[in-house]
Amino acid sequence: MKIIKEINEKFKNTPDLITRKIKYKLRTVYIFYIETICSSELINNFILKNLTNPNHKPSLSNILATPNFKNINKEQIEFYLYNGFTVILYKNHIYALETKANLDRSISFPEIEQDLYGAKDSLVENYQKNIGLIKRRIKSSHLKTIEYKLGRYSKTATGLLYIDNIAKKELVKELDNKLSNIDTDIIIDAGSLKQYLSKESKNFFPPTKLTERPDVIVEALLEGKVVIILDTCPFAIITPAVLADFINPVSDKYLYNYNANNLKILRLICFFLTIFTPAFYIAIITYNHETIPATLLTSFITQNQGIPFPATIETFFMLFICEMLRESDIRFPSNYSSSISILGALILGDAAVSANIVSPIMIIVTALTFISSMIFNNVELSGAIRAWRFLSLIIASFLGLYGVSLSIIFFIVNIASYQSFNLPYTFPVVPFNIPYLKETLYEGKKKDDTKRSKYLTNNLRKQRWQYEKNITYLIFTTTMWLLQLHWIKWTRCSFYVNYRLSRKRI
Q1: Can you name the residues that pair with 19 across neighbouring β-strands?
Q2: Residue 69 — pLDDT band, cuts 50, 70, 90?
Q3: Fewest Cβ atoms closer than 10 Å to its Cβ: which of 26, 383, 434, 488?
Q4: Torsion sign, CA atoms 320, 326, 330, 333
C-alpha cells in the first residue's frame, strides 16, 4: 500500500515506531504505535489478543467500539502517533485508538504556593487532569474552553478558560487572537507562552500571574479573568494581573477579617521596606546626617570606623552576596538549600564583620531588606523588586534623601502608567474600585461581598446578591401593591360616604 510506504519513509529513523501486520478476514491489518509513549500492556491485551486469539473469533468491531476511538485521515497520523495513539489501517480506513502510557505524576501538594488551611492539590503536567481539577470546583456549563495546538513541532495542547457570562468578551477575543497567531517551533511551558501574550514594556513588573493552585484559578475565573493552561506544564497563566494580585495570597480567604487585613498591611509595609530600605540607609549615612539623633549617629560612626569601603560599595557588596545566596537556594536540591542559606548567612556575615569589611549595622539593614522580600514568593515580582531596589540605591548614593524621594515618585509614576491588558496596574486603588478592593487589599464581610468589578466584567451582580435583591424587590412591590389597594379602597369608601351624605341633604 502507498500509505504504508509513506509512513515508513516518514519515520525512517524512528526506532521506537513499532509496525505489526495481522491477518484478519483474508485481509491485512496494519498496526503502528510508538513504543516509548504507548502502553505495551494495553496494546497486547486489548488489540493484539483481540485480533489473534485462537480461542474465540477475532473481532475488529470490538476494538473500534471503544469510546477512545477516532476515525482519522493520513495527514493526522503523525499527530496521533506522537500523542500516544495506536494507528490501525484496515481496508481504506485509518483508525486511531488511545493507548497512552501513564507517564504523569500524581496530584501532589503545592510546592511554591503553600497554605495552612487551603486545598492541598496542585496542577500537574497533564492537561486533562488540570482541566478536571478546575471543573471539579466549577460545575457550570458557563465555563468555556477554547483549545489550541501551539508549536509546529510540539503541538502542545493549550486551553483558554473563561466563564462566558462573567468574563469580558473583548479580553477573550484579544487573547484568542494572540494565541491563534503564535507561529513558533515549540511551546512547552507557561514561561515561554506568556512572552507572546504581552507586549515588551519598560516596567519590570509582570503583566500575568503564574499559579499552580486550582483554587486560585477558580477565584480568578469568578472575578472575570481568563486562564490559560498548557499540557506538560504544572502552572497556569492568569490574565490580567495587577500589583494587588501579588500582594494578596489566597490564604487570606481562610482567615477572619481583622487578621487578614493586618497581614495585608504588613505585606504593603514590607513591599516598600524591601525596595527603599538600603537607599534610605545610604542617604542618611552619607549625606543627611541631620535627620537622625546624635546618639544614633555616633553609634553609626563608631561602627563604621575601620571599614575600608564607602557605605555605597558596602551596601552593593552585601546585597550582591544575598542575591547569590537566594539563587543558590533556588537552584540547589531542596534537602540542602536551607542549610546552605543558613551557613552562608551566618559564616559570611560574621566573617565580614570580624574582618572589618562591613559594619554590623549593614548586616541589620541587609537582613531587614531580605526578610521583607521573602514574603513575596513570586519569582518575577522578586525580580522587579530587585531591579527597583538597585535603581533607588544608585539614585540615593548621588542625591541623598532627595534621591530617595525622586525614586519613590518615579516608582509610583512608572507603575501607575503601566497597564496589564488595558487594566491599570495600580487597580483597584487607581482607578478606585470597591468590589475588587474587597477581593484583594481589603478583606470585608462576606455578606457585603455582593458585586464584581466593572473593570473586569459586565456581570456586576453575584448570585447571592441577586437573590437577595429579588426577595427585597418582591417584598417592596408586594407592600406597594397592598398600600395602593388600601388607598383605592379608602378613597372609594370616602367617596361613597360623601355621596350618601350629599343625597341626605338633598
Answers
A1: 32
A2: confident
A3: 26
A4: positive
